[in-house]
Amino acid sequence: MKAIWKDKIIAESEETIVVENNQYFPPASVNMNYLAKTDTETICPWKGKASYYNIIVDSEKNPDAAWTYENPKLKAIEIKNYIAFWKGVKIVK
To answer: Could you read off the pLDDT of 35-44 as tens digits, one per residue?
Structure first.
């Protein structure tokens, strides 16, 4: 799977995990040069607290377009530190 925004591959892996129709990419498969951590956080009742990243490509910012669970609840432990995308990020095979 690939996560693409503005024609740049942000992440690529054959070992994503699908949770609630979102592809979660292993941390090592994500090009962190395109991500900048934000202060945004949300709470999922069963996964826990999510932290967010802006995606920045060629000076264009897609705010809070990636998220991760750094300390997920036990039910979601398999996606710990994996990163998922939304807000126009294309997920393709």
So the answer is: 999 999 999 9
